[in-house]
Amino acid sequence: MEQEINYIPYIVGGVIFLWGYFTYVGLIKKRNNLRESSSGIDVQLKKRYDLIPNLMTMAAKYMEHEKELMTEVTRLRNEVMNVDFSKNPQEKIKLDNLLSEKMQQFKLTAENYPDMKSNDMMNNAMISLNEVEEHIAASRRFYNSSVKELKNAVEIFPSSLIAKLVGVKDDMPFFEAEEQAKQSVDAGNYFK
Amino acid sequence: MKNNIFLSALSSQLLKNETLKTVAPFFSSCKKEEQKYSEEIQTLKNNFDEYYNTTIAPVCDEQEKIRLYYLNIFKNYRLSIIIFFLTIILLFAKKIFLAICVNPSSVLFAMPLIVAFVWLILSIPSKQYARIHKTNILSLFMQYFESFSYIYKNHIDIETLNNSMTFHELTNIKGDDYFKGNYKGVEIIISEFEANSKYKRFGSTKINNEQKTCILLNMNKNFTGTTAGILHFEEIPVKILNSLEKINLEDVVFDKIWNIFSNCQVEARYVLTTALMERILHLKSFYGNCPINFSFFNNKLLLCLNVTENMFETASLFKPAENKKNICNALEQILSIFSIVDILKLNKKIGM
Questions:
Q1: Cβ of residue B252 closer than 8 Å to a chain A Cβ
Q2: Nearest CA-CA distance, residue B274 and chain A, Å
Q3: In angstroms, rounded to a whole number, what is the distance separating the alpha carbons of residues A129 and A112?
Q4: What sign does the dihedral A55-A58-A59-A60 (CA atoms) show?
Q5: How far is A133 from chain B (nearest CA, A)?
Q6: Closest-CA residue in chain B for A114?
Q7: Beta-sheet pairing, B300-305 with B292-297
Q8: Which residue intervals of A61-88 are DSSP H helices?
Q9: CA-based, 20 to 30 A from B137: which of A51, A142, B1, B21?
Q10: Å from A140 to nearest chain B CA?
Q11: Residues of chain A found within 8 Å of residue B275, distances taken between Cβ atoms
Q12: For A135, which of B265, B270, B351 is closest by C-beta distance?
């Protein structure tokens, strides 16, 4: 008598294998997306770091009384440049937030120097800086969305099982504003 | 706004759409409300009466003579057609009767052809009058906005429209009203056209014929990629699915309404800032939640309104040439388009 073959375990096994494979593919894609977005931030930040020396050199002619601020911007720029985002994201985010804050302060202070504002070169540099800042903001948003997608995939069951199995981690932090930056700014402080 | 033809045109379009259920209640309430224009636009609106009385109204007398001339031609055509068909019927009454009895389907087949032929003949004087009236009156009307010009039967070029990725591959375009000019330093092109597009879905080639109203605006940012927002999933062109990737944005409301696609994740977010997303939502409600697809490409923004009825219809063979109501409707339509610049703040440059 012919023995009947039970296909159900094979079908169930096949479905589980396919689900596992596609979840794995999804996780790797999300991780690569995150890597792409973090390198995107580096590219945009590099543009800002390249722009700062020119900006400071031009501003130095007009803002003699703001030497302290400009020195601080330059120091932070040199410091943050030496930190690799993919290796030490927390430190990079912290320093970059500090630099952003100082740059904001610099832009507000620049309002006090109409001669500087009327300089075409300075004007162009400020426009470029603002464009770069917008690109940085866009890169951060892409990075945060990639972090969120990976975190969801790694932390939510059942894809968390595959993530543990293949060693995909969600160790990259969100790019958040520092507590100090979240507080409302009293613009008057800059014009004392 | 009393005579807002644009909104009523959109309303009747929406009546045919599935979106009616969600849009209609808001739409009818929006119709009753006075549109909130910026101060500059309100000034343009308030000063128009004087311009109309001094510049447009005097030309209308000449237009009225032209209208009556073409109305006579229309009447002659109509009379000729009636005589022609009566003669045919009288001469071949027996044969026609037999044909109806023996093969009624042949008559059913012939009827649409006859109707189309009659419609084609009768529409000739109407079209000729519309061309003359629009070229004269709308050109004069657009001079009110100084930098604007009007071209009859023109359209945005096919390449630009295809590059915007908001359409299936366009094969043929028949242009209608076309306006070009500057408002607050932002170049605006308004183009109405009928487009044929071709696309493949599930192995079969489909051909679409749609009437579109597109507004092309210069953007205040530089970008090289393409970011498109398509309202309905079934409208997403195949080329978008093949070449762009889906973007999930932070604004939940915005993300739910539009399917966003771009060839660069960062650039999509550079163009669609959180502030701009809010402004686009505001624009949608300003237009009574009418279906709008958009695309950012080559430093430009293309807004595509899904309207089946004609905008800027100032010429009617059967109404007096001096029709202030129609001109005022066109004014409302133009001003609502100018408002896009104010709502999206396209005139504000990034920088100091």
A1: no
A2: 10
A3: 18
A4: positive
A5: 10
A6: B352
A7: antiparallel
A8: 67-81
A9: B1
A10: 9
A11: none
A12: B270
What is residue B125's predicted lDDT score, i.e. its pLDDT?
Answer: 92
Read off the tokens for A91: 């430190």
Question: What six digits make up the tokens of B109?
Answer: 């087949």
Q: Is the ipTM of this complex over 0.90?
A: no
Res B257: pLDDT: 92
User: Where residue B77 falls among pLDDT bands split at 50, 70, 90?
Assistant: very high
What pLDDT digit, counting tens, does each position of B237-251 carry? 888 888 899 998 888
Residues with Cβ < 8 Å from B88, sequence gap 6 or more?
none
- The answer to whether B224 touches B268, Cβ cutoff 8 Å, is no
pLDDT at A66 over 50: yes
**Rounded mean pLDDT of chain B?**
83
Nearest residue to B244 via CA among B267, B219, B221: B267
pLDDT at B350 over 80: no
> What is A131-167 written as a DSSP string?
HHHHHHHHHHHHHHHHHHHHHHHHHSTTHHHHHHHHT
What residue type is assigned to position B314 of the chain?
A: T
**Cβ within 8 Å, pair A130-B266:** no
Which pLDDT does position B3 carry in this prediction? 42
Angle formed at CA B233 by CA B339 and CA B243, multiple of 5 degrees: 90
The DSSP code for B138 is I
Cα(B251)–Cα(B257) distance, integer angstroms: 10
pTM assigned to the model: 0.79
Strand partners, B303: B215, B294
Count of A-B CB contacts under 8 Å:
47
- Kindly give, in sequence order, each residue whose CB lies less than 8 Å from that of residue A192, ignoring residues fewer than 6 positions away: none
Closest CA to B82 of B114, B45, B44: B114
For tokens 């109806």, name the residue. B100
pLDDT tens for each residue of A124-160: 888 888 888 888 889 989 999 999 999 999 999 888 8
Distances in Å between the Cα of B210 and the Cα atoms of B194, B213, B333 are 6, 10, 20
Question: What's the DSSP call for residue B345?
Answer: T
B52 C-beta neighbours (distance < 10 Å), count: 19
> Letter for the amino acid at B239?
K
Q: In whole angstroms, how large is the CA radius of gyration of chain A?
A: 25
pLDDT tens per residue across span B18-63 = 333 333 323 333 343 455 778 888 888 889 999 999 988 888 888 8
Give the position of tokens 């006090």. Answer: A112
The helix (H) or strand (E) run that includes residue A95 is helix A89-110
The first and second tokens of residue B316, run together, are 């009617």
Which two three-digit tokens encode residue B165? 């990725």
| A173: nearest Cα among A56, A37, A15 | A37
Tokens of B339: 């408002």
